[in-house]
């Protein structure tokens, strides 16, 4: 009889619009290593750009599944965090289990080799974690193991080299102690933003895998706090809530998609992060969320133009907390959660299966920007009033890293006053 061993796989993602300065870049024009760094950077970019279309397909497919499961709720998750954790798990998977994981992550294994996938993620983690891109973005992975479980040296070495994995021993027979150890680690790594990630731990757990991403960015054109005022937000036909609405008049990247009946505004953070704010016409959200694919984002990018706008956008904090085992099963990642699982590349024996996948992500949006940016952001006044774009009903928020073309976070904001 097959022994069932449990792996809990936990993922945490965070986006916070900064309340402080982004750490300065270590590289400037006077650094003799600048050229060497740029050449290395370009090589990394080529490796991780191979993953871009697949990671984007996974992100929007996952979004569709989650919106079907929770049609009228706030949604916020980090697709790049989920992809990274499961790609790392695939290092230890074998046979059908491995194929299902990689194909479930939207990789076509006739077009890309497993080795290229792992190298791509390695370079993606490295590029996203570099301060040179102007935003504070930390990614990491950790594994917590019971003392009895002896992982193969090859798995640990490969996971450390490719996924910056940290390994810790923990006593799962003492759930209170192990929960505290894991939660303290995640809280420290996400700068206090994500707390109490694990609870009600199963004492039979022998291994727990966590993946996190922490992002902190400043608006390139910050909003002025004195222009924030309370305004109405229409959650649905029956519900209206009051929200603090930020306001800014200026030139913004803008596009109206007639086919999908939605308004797109793109804002930039200092550095390489950018956000698409997508406001569907009333009654058009379902159509948008079920048809959204990477090609549509590309079309928006190609058609954006600078337009003078009076922009109103809510200030809010939300978090998403998901048990995503069923979602991933619907996307073809099935065996790893059953007794058919083959994770023998982790321990050399085929007794492991994943019991639970939890993903937690948090989002804060406020007016903040760097002082330097605030000093140069002059308001544009015209004799005729510019059109008003007000995000006062459910909208989408898509956060990308321009250097790697990675989808960092996807959010659907139905009610900005609901924190989760």
From TrEMBL:
Where the record annotates domain Serpin, the positions are 60-416
The record, for Pfam families, names:
Serpin
Where in this chain does the entry annotate a coiled-coil region? none
* Organism in which the protein naturally occurs: Limosa lapponica baueri
Family, similarity comment: Belongs to the serpin family.
**Signal peptide range:** 1-20
Which controlled-vocabulary keywords does the entry list? Glycoprotein, Protease inhibitor, Serine protease inhibitor, Signal
Write down what this protein is called. Answer: Alpha-1-antiproteinase 2-like
Q: What PANTHER family has UniProt attached to this entry?
A: ALPHA-1-ANTITRYPSIN (PTHR11461:SF165), SERINE PROTEASE INHIBITOR, SERPIN (PTHR11461)
* Example of a GO MF term: serine-type endopeptidase inhibitor activity
Concerning PROSITE patterns, the annotation shows:
SERPIN
Q: Which SMART domains match?
A: SERPIN
Q: What SUPFAM superfamilies does this protein's entry cite?
A: Serpins (SSF56574)
**One Gene Ontology cellular component annotation held by this UniProt entry:** extracellular space
Its lineage reads: Eukaryota, Metazoa, Chordata, Craniata, Vertebrata
Q: Does the keyword rRNA-binding apply?
A: no
